[in-house]
Structures are given as C-alpha cells and as structure tokens.
Amino acid sequence: MKTQILLFFSILFFTLTIYSQAPRGFYAVAGLSQTELKSSDLLTEPNLGFLLGINFQMGYHESYNYQMELTYRINTLDVKYVENGFEQASSSKYNASDLNFGLYFNYYILKPEEDEFFIGPQAGVFAALQDVFTPSGGSDVSGQYYLPHLLDENALSHSSEFNYGFGFGITGGYNNFRFDLRYTLGMVNLLSDVETDSYDENHNYIGPSLEGKTNTISFGVSYNIFHFKK
C-alpha cells in the first residue's frame, strides 16, 4: 500500500512538472495563522499563531499553475476549564500545531508577468501531522477539568495525530513575492479517541462519542529563493 501511494505521488509530481510552464521555483514562506476547534464537546477559543515553511511553484500555462507546500503552523487554543471547587471557569492554553503538506491549484485572473501584479483564486487539499492536545509550554494543569465533560489532561492527550481536508482562498503577488490568503477545513474528528470518565463494571466505555474538527485561516507571504529557468 505504501509503495502504491509513493508511486501515485511520483507520477502526479512528474505529470504536473511536464505540463506546467515557467515560472517555477522554490519559495520560503512565513505568515500568520489561526486555528479554531469546532466542537460542542470541548469549549475552546482560538489564538493568533504563526506559520513557516517552503512551497514549490510548478509554473503556469497561460493562466494557472500548481503549488506544493510544506508548512509548520504554530497555533494554540484556550481551553475552558473548572478546578476542584467548580466555582469559576477559566482557560488554559493548549498546543494545536501541525505539520501541513498541501497541493493547490492557482488560477490567475491577472496573469503573472514581470513587473506586474497578479492575483486569482486558489483551491486544493492538504494532509497534516497534528500535534496532540498538550499544555502549551509544559504548564502544570493538575486539577483542571475541561468543559463541558470535565475531561482531564490525560484524556485530551488521546486527540488525533492526523488530519486532512481542503482549502480555498486568494493567491497573488509581484515579481519574486507571493501571498496566500486561505481558509482550510479539516475533515478528521480530532476527538474521536478522547473519552469521558464513563465506564461500566467491565471497564467498557459507555460515555458519549465526542466530536471536534478544525478550521484555519492563514495569511502567508513567500519569496522566491530558487528559480527554474524556462
């Protein structure tokens, strides 16, 4: 199976490279991102984070091109909790970062030309290695119970380590600079293996199935660090 997947991506990469036209090259990218967990089973608020990475532009043929990218998105969530007294709700910062591989199709309304601004819509897919939910900076979260199911740190450590989905947005730039303003939707339930403290006498889980998916808005600026000639 792994061999078949590797063969598929090799053929895809080779095909796109053949049929793409200049400009082609590698770009270093940095920017801002904010990830939100859409869930009624874990109450959170998103924080503004950062992204760093590299992307490869495989050229354009008149009005479109392909973009492959590898980025690390550094994000956190404020998770709502109560302590032993259950008197007042507070929030604790948890990691929600990921290593993201994306493949996007860029269509240019204004075509890339030397010394001219270009812009157009963008759409594609991604797969990501997701950090499990852990306290940011190794903070001590003993005695914190996360709302609304009163989960603890150990329960959240069983969140999914893989995500995939699709994204869309606007891409553009000028000469060696590019930008991507994008909204991505994760399709994986990151809380599928997270369980409440609900078990029967045989230690079989009898609690609810928890649900939680991510969406991310990001803005990245990239600069051409290596350009392939026509």
Account of the 3D structure:
This protein is mostly beta strands. Helix content is 10%, strand content 52%. The chain has 2 helices and 12 strands, in the order H-E-E-E-E-E-E-E-E-E-H-E-E-E. The chain has helices spanning 2-19, 153-156, and strands spanning 24-38, 44-46, 48-60, 64-74, 76-82, 90-95, 98-107, 117-130, 145-146, 162-174, 177-186, 213-228. It has an 8-stranded antiparallel barrel. Strands 2, 5, 6 and 9 form a 4-stranded antiparallel β-sheet that branches. The chain starts with a helix and ends with a strand.
> Mind describing the biggest β-sheet?
8 strands, antiparallel, barrel
- Large-scale geometry: elongated
Helix vs. strand class: mainly beta
Q: How many individual β-strands?
A: 12
Q: What is the overall number of helices?
A: 2
Cα-atom radius of gyration: 21 Å
Q: End-to-end distance, in Å?
A: 36 Å
Strand content: over 45%
H/E series: HEEEEEEEEEHEEE
Strand order of the largest sheet: 1-3-4-7-8-10-11-12
- Mean pLDDT across residues: 88
Low-confidence stretches: 11-22
Helix content: under 10%
